[in-house]
Amino acid sequence: MTRKVQQQILDYIVEAGLQVGDRLPTEPELCAKFGVSRTAAREAMKYLEALGVVSIERGRGTFLRAFDVGQLVGNIPTQLVFQKGDILEVVRVRQTLEEYCLEQAIVHGEEEDVKRLGAIVKAMERRAAHGVSMEAEDREFHRHLANMANARLALMILEIFWDLRGKLPVDNSPEALKRRYLCHYRIYQAVRMRDLQLGRVYLGEHFSGSYEELLPSLDPARGAAIGAEQAATNDDDSTSTCKR
Q1: Cα 143 from Cα 198, distance rounded (Å)
Q2: Rounded Cα gap, residues 25 and 8, in angstroms
């Protein structure tokens, strides 16, 4: 019954066209509207509050909240949902979503958005110069691309993938940080020049590095082989594959 009431409340929110900050019906009103007990109505609201859909304020009422993806993701036990062998597939799916976001950002992004992307890259450059992790800036870069693309659903899914990626080993050596910064700088330049083809090339490099960085923890033998090959070729940093 509680699950049924939850869905009825969600349907009501959509049908009534409620906006963020609007007050929902009181508990007695919900009971009368749906013909349910106060216990079922109360439990349904508690569940929706836990999801971040509504905010229950004592003495004032229940209000519709702005949807917070971060709060929802925080409640998902990603380490149980995804197994170790799923990681490479997760990276591949993320790459597809990121490519869509990049293409839409290049086509539809406003100039102010491009400037903001450049500022994030500048912050990454400073981090790399000081040998400091740029995880927050990295995530913000891709989140901003999704916002530029107005890809709301893609962003919701990407938040889950980023949360999972954060639980895996990350190479924060000075060389890796420099490559990571250069990778995002190149993607930014493609966005700034509105060059779709160049953007796809640089994004491909970015994710090629992600695969290489994850392989040692997922398949030690393959990771060691790739590492030996890279050491032998001794590529210049400016043309090395971008990671993460």
Answers
A1: 20
A2: 12
The reply to whether the predicted model has a pTM over 0.90 is no
Mean pLDDT of 108-124: 96
Both structure tokens of 217: 């923890």
Torsion (CA) 93, 96, 100, 101 in degrees, nearest 10: 50
Q: Which domains are present in the chain? A: 2-67 (1.10.10.10), 78-239 (1.20.120.530)
Computed over every residue of the chain, the mean pLDDT equals 83
Average pLDDT over residues 197-221: 79
Whether residue 125 is predicted with pLDDT greater than 90 in this model: the reply is yes
What would the 3-class secondary structure string for the chain be?
CHHHHHHHHHHHHHHCCCCCCCECCCHHHHHHHHCCCHHHHHHHHHHHHHHCCEEEECCCEEEECCCCHHHHHHCCCHHHHCCHHHHHHHHHHHHHHHHHHHHHHHHHCCHHHHHHHHHHHHHHHHHHHCCCCCHHHHHHHHHHHHHHCCCHHHHHHHHHHHHHHCCCCCCCCHHHHHHHHHHHHHHHHHHHCCCHHHHHHHHHHHHHHHHHHHHHHHCHHHHHHHHHHHHHHCCCHHHCCCCC
Q: Extract the tokens encoding 235.
A: 């590529």
- For 63-72, write each residue's pLDDT tens digit: 998 866 555 6
- Asked if 163 and 120 count as a contact pair (C-beta separation under 8 A), the reply is no
The whole-number pLDDT of residue 71 equals 59
Beta bridge partners of 56: 62
Check residues 231 and 187 and name the one with the higher pLDDT.
187
